[in-house]
Amino acid sequence: MNFVPTPIPGLVVIEPQIWKDERGFFIETYNEKPFSTHGISGFVQDNLSYSHRGVLRGMHAQAGDNAQGKLVRVLRGRVFDVAVDIRKSSSTYGKHFSIILDGENAKSLWIPPGFLHGFLALEDDTLFAYKVTGFYDKSGELGVRWDDPELAIEWPLRHDEFIISAKDRQLPLLKEISNPF
Amino acid sequence: MNFVPTPIPGLVVIEPQIWKDERGFFIETYNEKPFSTHGISGFVQDNLSYSHRGVLRGMHAQAGDNAQGKLVRVLRGRVFDVAVDIRKSSSTYGKHFSIILDGENAKSLWIPPGFLHGFLALEDDTLFAYKVTGFYDKSGELGVRWDDPELAIEWPLRHDEFIISAKDRQLPLLKEISNPF
Ligand SMILES: Cc1cn([C@H]2C[C@H](O)[C@@H](COP(=O)(O)OP(=O)(O)O[C@H]3O[C@@H](C)[C@H](O)[C@@H](O)[C@H]3O)O2)c(=O)[nH]c1=O
Ligand SMILES: Cc1cn([C@H]2C[C@H](O)[C@@H](COP(=O)(O)OP(=O)(O)O[C@H]3O[C@@H](C)[C@H](O)[C@@H](O)[C@H]3O)O2)c(=O)[nH]c1=O
């Protein structure tokens, strides 16, 4: 397992070892030992979402008593995954990091609390799995529009192909929210 | 999340809530609260295996300092999953429980320490995910042949279609192992 830093402090890409044989493959997708050595621990919930091509989920964060760090990965299919630093005292405040996650590269991205997160599914049958360090808590949820010009995310695919929940279409801009981080 | 007992004490089937919408679906596949309420806790590692149709993995257990309870599920595809009770003082010693796990039913099976476990992939592109309560430890691994007549497992598919690792083809019979449980 390799832990690879990104240009945004705290955001880490994890590359697992993939064991292939005539049966298929085997991967340890999470192991408490190397993760806690890298300061990543405390997971309490595992989530799975399934998305059609063009589904965009985001940009979301969970703050408060159940603030969430997220360890995200794709099991099948392919996404354009984005995390935006909204930690007010961060030297990279407002900057984002994007990465292609897919079932082949089997990479994970560790996103500590203090980031907005979202992704666009680039293929049908995309299975997206994530572990979180705080229980789901609607009272701590916040969100920002995927197309907020301040975020300046260059999403792939044509925007008229996007499938976005009613909730996410109504999100405010970053400058309109009261930022708890 | 429903926790459904099976005829073998300790083995539990878990049925999650599946939230469907125009984007696809969302599932909490694991949540520390309801699981620990049901006495299931202490996961330290998450594993993922990918198998072609006909791949049979098993029958395995891990005993010793890192004895493993396993929470197993299928994310995509379909398996015939089997757990054999080898707890020497159990009233159901030697009995097995089998279940079809697939990406649609999204069921999990909780297998405490003291069981042999194995599965047969019934479809190509089968993704099998499991959480374990002990770190991988070769010194604690034990295995029994999938076709041990004492286990009397009625595997589906034709046996000449099976793809089995060299390691698993050489496993002993249950009566030949020294049983640590
Ligand atoms: C996130 C979540 C949702 N749900 C339920 C509530 C809803 O009815 C249904 C769908 O929830 P939504 O918030 O619309 O799912 P979503 O897929 O849009 O939300 C997710 O988007 C990702 C980009 C973020 O990283 C996640 O943290 C999360 O916010 O699932 C839970 O039961 N537990 C959870 O942990
Ligand atoms: C199980 C495991 C394997 N590996 C490596 C060692 C091998 O090179 C490669 C494949 O290992 P194998 O033991 O052949 O995989 P396998 O898929 O045959 O083994 C699994 O079968 C399931 C039925 C059991 O429930 C599991 O507990 C496990 O025994 O993966 C790890 O690094 N960590 C692990 O936790």
Automatic annotation (TrEMBL), chains A, B:
Class of this enzyme: isomerase
Residue numbers annotated as active site: H60 (proton acceptor), Y130 (proton donor)
Source organism of the structure: Parapedobacter composti
Enzymatic reactions: dTDP-4-dehydro-6-deoxy-alpha-D-glucose = dTDP-4-dehydro-beta-L-rhamnose
Coiled-coil boundaries: none
Entry similarity comment: Belongs to the dTDP-4-dehydrorhamnose 3,5-epimerase family.
PANTHER family registered for this protein in UniProt: DTDP-6-DEOXY-D-GLUCOSE-3,5 EPIMERASE, THYMIDINE DIPHOSPHO-4-KETO-RHAMNOSE 3,5-EPIMERASE
Cross-referenced CDD domains: cupin_RmlC
Enzyme Commission code: 5.1.3.13
Molecular function, one GO term: dTDP-4-dehydrorhamnose 3,5-epimerase activity
A GO CC annotation given for this chain: cytosol
Assembly and binders: Homodimer.
Name the record gives this protein: dTDP-4-dehydrorhamnose 3,5-epimerase
UniProt cross-references to InterPro entries, sorted A to Z: RmlC-like, RmlC-like_jellyroll, RmlC_Cupin_sf
GO biological process: dTDP-rhamnose biosynthetic process; polysaccharide biosynthetic process
Function: Catalyzes the epimerization of the C3' and C5'positions of dTDP-6-deoxy-D-xylo-4-hexulose, forming dTDP-6-deoxy-L-lyxo-4-hexulose.
Positions bearing the site annotation: Participates in a stacking interaction with the thymidine ring of dTDP-4-oxo-6-deoxyglucose: Y136
Keywords, sorted A to Z: Isomerase
Pathway entry: Carbohydrate biosynthesis; dTDP-L-rhamnose biosynthesis
Any matching Pfam family: dTDP_sugar_isom
